[in-house]
Each structure stands twice: as C-alpha cells, then as structure tokens.
Amino acid sequence: MESVKSQTYEVHIGELAQAALNQHIAKKNYSKIFLLVDTNTKKHCLPAFKKMFSAPIDSIFEIDPGEENKHIHTCLQVWEHLSNFDGDRKSLLINLGGGVLTDLGGFVASTFKRGIDFINIPTTLLSMVDASIGGKNGVDLGALKNQIGVINQPQMVLVFPEFLQTLDPRQVTSGYAEMLKHGLIRDAAYWADLKEKNNFTDASSIQKSIFIKNDVVLIDPTEKGLRKILNFGHTLGHAIESYCLENHNKKTLLHGEAIAVGMILEGYLSHELKGLPKLALDEIKETFLHYFEKVVFDKDDIDSILKLLKYDKKNSHGDINFVLLQSIGDAVTDIKVPEELFRKAFDYYAE
C-alpha cells in the first residue's frame, strides 16, 4: 500500500512499515534505542513488534494507560529513565501505543537533551488516523486537554492495522469519530462512503483519513490557518472530555466519544451561523448517535462545560474561536459564537 509523504517524514502502512523501520535503524546508527509502551501495548503489541524489529532494544519503559496519565509527572518518569540508561542526543525513542502515549512520547523526545529522534507506532484507530500524524506532541494540564506541548515531527509513523485486533469495540469506535470528522471538514464523498461502512478499519479507509489529515498539515504545519479545521468538534468536545474526566459523577468519555458530541453541537452552531443545511445537520446527528451513546447533560453540567471553553488553545484575545461547517466537506475557521447559541446547541443534541 502506498506510503503517505509528509514534509519531513513518511507514514508507512502494513508490510512497507516493517521494511522502512529496519532500513531506517540500519542507516542511522543510533547510540541507544528506547521503547515506550503502556501496560496494554506491552501485553498485546510488544511481542509482535519484537518479531518484526531486527535491532536490539536497549531499554523498554512502561507507563500506565489512559488520559489521566497524560501529564508532566509521567514525562518526568520517562525523562529520568532515559537519563538513567545513558540516553544522549543520538538516541531514538520508539512510541508504541495509542494517542496518549504517542502525544506524551513525542513531547518527551522533543524536549530530552533539547530533542532526540522519535518514531510513532500507533496501536489504536484514533492514533493511526489522527493523534500520531502531524507532529503535535504534548500533555494535559490537570484535566485541561493538551495545554503543554510542541509541534515537532517524528522520523516516521508506522501503521500496522493488525494491532486493531487487540482493541475492545469501544476504542475502535472512538477512532471512527475522527475519521468521520475528516470527511465532514474536507471530503463529502468520503463522509458519505464512510458513514455507511460496516468495516471502517480496512487499510484503505485508514489510508484515506491519513491522506486527508496529512494534506492539511502539509499546507499549514504550524496551525496558522487551514490546519485549524482539524479542530471541528473539538472546542466543545474537549471541554466535555475534560469535564467528564474530572467529575466523578459523570462517565469518563473516550476522546472520540466526546468529539462526537462536540461535532453534533458545533454542527448546530454551523447551521445557525454558517448556513449548514438542516438536512445535513440532522444527517450528522443521526450518524453519530447511531454509533455513540447519547450523553445526558443537566444545566449544571452545561454551565461547567461552558466555563472550560476559555481554556481552548484556539482562543485569541479573550475570544473563543470555532471551526464550523458551511456544508459537509467545507469548513471555515475563527468563527465567534454568541453565547446564547451554546444552550440551544445542547437542547438540539438532547432532542
């Protein structure tokens, strides 16, 4: 399957990925090779990875899985491990895991010794099509998503679709939300095809999503303009994710589950402010509620979620900036939303 070329690296899928990894290692002559895993990928993915990787690994470091561990304290543990095992600027860190691990591992590598090489090997659908692509690396600040980080590209991203067989269905569906988002913001035909698919984990669908995200990142690598469209559903979605993470009375949502809610809400805002047709809005809502369980929000929940909007990374000069849809496949950025529409959006979601 054709690799996806970015400015400074490539995304290799399937058989090409194994060959690309071993060729890269043979060429670079790294002083140390470190592998970062979490409890799940150590058990389910590490044995297969060792069989396909020809070079010796100097040290493997394991972290706890989950968004609640994506913080600076975990970074400190990994930095200390790299230092204790004589990591230097010619070392390599391979990140074998989902979006939490690749985000955190990329940040650790980008800041250790002022930057060492890293390779992402995503093991969840979400990380394959989104988190490991584009060079965004970072950690949360408390429950606030991705407040600390850098943009720095990996040496390569290696996608092995067989790792998806290790996931529970909920994790797979979480990644599906980001794939659907790619269609909504950039490719109406992809949206139409993908929302009808029974199997959205096939290599061609994964490749298509990677192509869409990579194309956007190539045009705007540092998120000055077009790249902001990748945040559709994320302004309210991140606030919902953070709120549910820190509120023990609410079920903790996976990233894709929260973003699915966010896309329905921001779809409503798109209808009100940018002329997204009502039929398209209802199609978006129907599609996401078919795959994602509806979340119940009371007035206090909504008040708390809206207070979190001020921490969104896209904000500027005190303004909350939204990505909205003019039509399916056509997104616009930097839209200011009147506050009274937020509650109407939640009303529409609850209907």
Describe the protein's architecture and organization.
The chain is of the alpha/beta class. The protein has 2 domains: 4-166, Rossmann fold (3-Layer(aba) Sandwich), CATH 3.40.50; 169-350, Up-down Bundle (Dehydroquinate synthase-like, alpha domain). Helix content is 48%, strand content 17%. The strands form 4 sheets. The chain has a 4-stranded parallel sheet. Helix 6 (125-131) packs parallel to helix 9 (203-219). 48% of the residues are buried.
The low-confidence runs, each spanning 5 or more residues with pLDDT under 50, are none
CATH architecture of the largest domain: Up-down Bundle
CATH superfamily of the largest domain: Dehydroquinate synthase-like - alpha domain
The CATH topology of the largest domain is what?
A: Dehydroquinate synthase-like, alpha domain
Order of helices and strands: EEHEHHEHEHEHEEEHHHHHHHEEH
Strand order of the largest sheet: 4-3-5-6
Tell how many strands the DSSP assignment holds.
11
Mean pLDDT, all residues: 95
In terms of structural class, how would the helical and strand content be classed?
alpha/beta
Domain count: 2
Q: What is the name of the CATH class of the largest domain?
A: Mainly Alpha
Number of helices: 14
Shape verdict = globular
